[in-house]
Amino acid sequence: MRSRLLIIIGFAGAAAFAILSFTNAPKASAISPLDNAPAALASNNYPVPAPRFYGTAQDWLNTNGKALSMTQLTHEHKVVLVDFWEYTCVNCLRTLPYLQEWNKRYAKDGLVIVGIHTPEFKFAHKRANVLAALPRLGITWPVLVDSNYLNWQAWQGAEGVWPRDYLIDANGQVVEDHEGEGGYGRTESTIQELLKQAHPGLTFPPIMAPVHSADKAGSVCYPMTAETYCGGRGFQEGVISGVTNWAPGTHIQVPAPTGSLQDGIVYPVGNWVEQAESLQEGTRVPGQPNVIFLRYHALTANAVIKPELGQPLRVDIMQDGKPIPPGDKGTDIRYTPAGQSYILVDSPRMYTLTHLRTYGSHVLALIPQAPGFGLYSFTFTSCQE
Hints:
Blueprint: E1 4-5, H1 16-21, E2 48-49, E3 60-61, H2 70-75, E4 79-85, H3 90-106, E5 111-117, H4 127-137, E6 143-145, H5 150-155, E7 161-162, E8 164-168, E9 173-179, H6 184-198, E10 228-229, H7 232-236, E11 251-254, E12 266-274, E13 279-281, E14 291-307, E15 313-319, E16 322-323, E17 334-335, E18 341-345, E19 349-368, E20 373-381
Parallel strand pairs: 4-5, 5-6
Antiparallel strand pairs: 1-7, 2-9, 3-6, 4-8, 8-9, 10-20, 11-12, 12-13, 12-14, 13-20, 14-19, 14-20, 15-16, 15-18, 15-19, 17-18
């Protein structure tokens, strides 16, 4: 699975200023390893002083209205796991079961998880959208809304990845970080070692077993379609069919494709509106539905979708011209009494469309049934669960 680079936000414009202008963020300087640091942590130029947290009390969630500070956490001799994440990021969502279990196991012993939510899409800048995602995703630890990218710049620089986890010892030193998914056993072992350093005599349970089959040694993972963007970045990358120019706000009418569909290419059919980050449904003509087609190869297909008018809307989902079989449906698929598969788009987020029993290549069709459909990206996973 691949992590996602923040540099992609530059095309949208909303974040470009943040990525390029925050040059005064503190830069950690290398120091000698601590005498009691585990040998495995003395790599990657660590340990180094942890950057501060940027944000007011209003930017913090799950903290009873208080702002956290790294200085205070160090004063309290806490071990801190800083998790950079984004609530539409499939890779981030797959790490959540581990974070939830670590929080359950080790918070009483002095571990504090701090999620730093740095947005990819414009709608994810909104505090209210992040706040609404927390209970749905089961996130109970403190979350810092990083919509101006100050924390990302201080910790990761202009380019970085979702997810990325940093471990800070009880002396306020970053001792390790991990990019993307995986490495959960090592991360938990490090958490235990840092807690023992801070609080000798603690005992811990065995390292937790892998949550996903994909995290087990020898897991079967197949090739998959790359993450596919449906706005200006998708046009720049050549994955939007039938469009010769891209100017946000432009209304386009695209005919149905002829011949076979190419894998990883978004095929809009009908009336659509180009936007910086998305394709939005345009004029609705009775009897002429607007459709998005995509051929993909993977086990699971997801789509980031927003109800642009703020009202829930139904989107019919077809695979290979038929409703998705119940055995292959994603977690967000519903069915009408007549057996039509669909999703109810009620908030801007990632929707899981398929979770196939058997790996293969298929054609998805997304057919909005009411105005306000905005499609931002497709993502995929391809490891056998």
